[in-house]
Design brief:
The structure is a single chain. The protein has 296 residues and is an alpha+beta fold. It has 2 domains: 2-34 and 43-105, Arc Repressor Mutant, subunit A; 143-295, Endonuclease, Chain A, CATH 3.30.870. Helix content is 48%, strand content 23%. It contains 10 helices and 12 strands. The protein has a 10-stranded mixed sheet, with helices on both faces. A two-stranded antiparallel sheet has the order 1-2. A hairpin with a 2-residue loop joins strand 8 and strand 9 (245-252). Helix 2 packs across helix 3 (45-55) and helix 4 (62-69) crosses helix 5.
Length: 296
């Protein structure tokens, strides 16, 4: 009895040993990172936890997973159904009934390839779909209109809308795309500007530019930035001007304001103002292909 009690004390005290705590913290960090990365594959936090529990061998049935993750079994079944559709798990029937098996990490590359093929098919069919929808539309064309957008998704939408620019996009910029997009999203957008051959001219209050992109072709061929002293035109909004669109947005703290004004007259007037300011703005000396620059 005494020996058993001593073993019990040792096992309990070992939980507070620095080495154990370090391993626990490292494992927790790895799981958090994995959950975050799995979100890029379209998994919710709960779906990622179910997938990781199966991958780690902590459970392979809905009952076991519900106990481990403290979720209702009906909820676990719905999560498993989603994971099956996303090909993150498969089922296996054995002597003890149906079990769930996690897709091996080295198989995720095939899932990415499937997504790439799906995107390629969507892009290929996009022009035909746009043409068909335009022919079916009964909405009358308006000479001018104002559209309001809300929240982070609205901010992303107006930014992606600027990919419609024909030839040139004029911008007043307070920060960079990385201020409100993830770096991966910002780089993807920059690649699209290059693919669409959109030349971007930007006015900014910044006096020094750190390296901001790996899309070097954008820096060398499709983008020019000039410095506008704040007292010359202290703009408080970021502004996009292209085609017949004048767009303003601001993101400060929790406040996100986005508006698109479709008016050829307004866009042309703002384009003329931009050209005047561009003429008096100071040029940057670009120091490398990643956008590092300093005022001349």
């Amino acid at each position: 009895m005494v020996n058993i009690f001593k073993v019990h004390l040792i096992s309990i005290s070992s939980l507070h040993h620095p080495t154990y705590l370090l391993k626990f913290n490292l494992m927790s960090e790895k799981l958090d990172t994995a959950i975050s990365l799995l979100s890029h594959f379209g998994l919710s936090e709960l779906e990622a936890k179910v997938y990781l529990a199966i991958l780690q061998g902590r459970g392979d049935t809905a009952l076991a997973l519900s106990r481990i993750l403290h979720l209702a079994r009906t909820k676990v079944y719905r999560l498993l159904d989603n994971l099956l559709v996303q090909k993150m798990v498969v089922t296996r029937v054995g002597e003890r009934g149906m079990r769930f098996v996690a897709t091996a990490p080295d198989q995720l590359e095939f899932l990415v390839a499937d997504q790439e093929q799906s995107v390629a098919r969507l892009r290929q069919s996009l022009p035909t779909l746009q043409s068909q929808l335009t022919s079916l539309s009964t909405q009358p064309a308006a000479n001018s209109s104002v559209l309001f957008y809300h929240g982070q998704d609205g901010l992303k939408q107006v930014t992606y809308n600027s990919l419609r620019a024909k030839g040139e996009l004029l911008t007043y910029e307070i920060g960079t795309l990385d201020s409100f997009l993830s770096h991966a999203e910002a780089e993807h957008l920059r690649e699209r500007f290059v693919a669409n051959k959109i030349h971007i001219r930007t006015l900014t209050h910044l006096t020094h530019l750190e390296a901001w992109t790996d899309v070097t072709k954008l820096v060398t061929r499709y983008c020019e930035i000039r410095h506008l002293a704040p007292q010359s035109n202290p703009f408080q909004f970021e502004i996009l001007i292209y085609n017949n669109v004048y767009c303003m947005y601001r993101y400060t703290g929790d406040e996100i304001f986005c508006v698109e004004i479709y008016s050829q007259e307004l866009a042309d007037m703002q384009r003329q103002l931009f050209e005047y300011l561009w003429g008096v703005a100071s040029k940057f000396q670009v120091l490398d292909d990643h956008g590092t620059a300093q005022l001349i």
